[in-house]
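QA checklist item 7 of 12: single-chain prediction sanity check.
[x] sequence parsed
[x] length recorded as 305
[x] structure emitted
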Amino acid sequence: MRTTLSRRTVLAVPGSSERFIAKSRHLNVDAIFLDLEDAVAAGAKVAARDNVVRALRDPQGWQAPCVTVRVNDWTGPWTVSDLIDVVGQVGDRIDAIVVPKVTGVDQIRATDLVLSQIERGAGWPVGRIGIEAQIEDARGLIAADAIAAASARMVSLVFGPGDFMASVGMGTLSVGSQPAGYSADAFHHALMTILVAARAHGLQAIDGPFVGIRDLDGFVASAAKSAALGFDGKWVVHPDQVEQGNQIYSVDPSVIERARRIVAAYDQATSQTGGFTGAIEVDREMVDEAGVKLAQALLAKALRQ
C-alpha cells in the first residue's frame, strides 16, 4: 500500500530544471517530488509540465521507490491543468500528488474528483494515486484533522514551515530555522497538531524543509526534533542533507532489538505457559500492554525503512 512507502527523506526537485531532475535520479532518498509550484516561476509553469512529463516517461526512472508531483495550489489558475496535463499522460508512473497550501477539505476533495475522472478515462484503477496535503498556514493547521479525513486517497500530512512562518508572523527569514529570542521550539505546536491528525487517520507525518543548505548542524537539529516526536521523515533540498536525514528518521538497531525482546517476553508471559501474566519486567522497566504497543509500533516503522 502507498501509505507503507518509506518517506524518511523526500527530495524537492524543480520541475523546470532538467539538470536537477537528472541528478535526482541517482540519490539515495526514499521519495522525490517533481515540483510545479514554488520552485517554478509563473512564466515557466507550462513548460515545466512538459518537462515533468518527459522526465516521467524516461525509462531510466529513479532510485527513489516513491515518485510524486507537487501541483500548484488551488488559489491560482494552474491546478486543474497541472493534473490533466501531467497525471493524464503519466499518472501510471506517479505514486501521489502533493497539494500545497491546503486550508480545508474542499481542496482535497476537488483533487480527488479530478484524479478519479482522469483514472477512469485512462482505464486505471480509481483511487490508486495518493494525495499528500501540505499544511502551510494558520487556517490549515486548525483544519488539519478534517483535511486528514477528506479522502481515502490521503497518504500524508506535510508541514510547510515557510508559508506557516509568514502566516503567523514569525520573526526570521530562514525557512525552517528557529526565530531568535525564543528558547523553546517555535514549531512544536504545529508539528504535534499535524502528527496527531495524521496518526488519527492512519497517515504519515512529514516535516518540511530546512533551507540552510550549508548549515548541516542546523538541519540535523531540526530533523532530530520532529523525528523524536514520531515524524516519519523530512523534505530535503540538497544532497548533503540526505544521509543525515535517512539516519535520523531510521529506528536505531538497538531500539529494534529491545522492542523485539519486549514483544517476545510479553508474548511468553501472557501465554498459558507463562501464567497469563499481564505485567512483566524487561531491562529493569515494567512492561504491560501499553509498552508492548509502543514496541510493536516501532517495529512496524522499522519494516518500512
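[x] summary fact logged: The chain has a mean pLDDT of 92.
[ ] second reviewer sign-off
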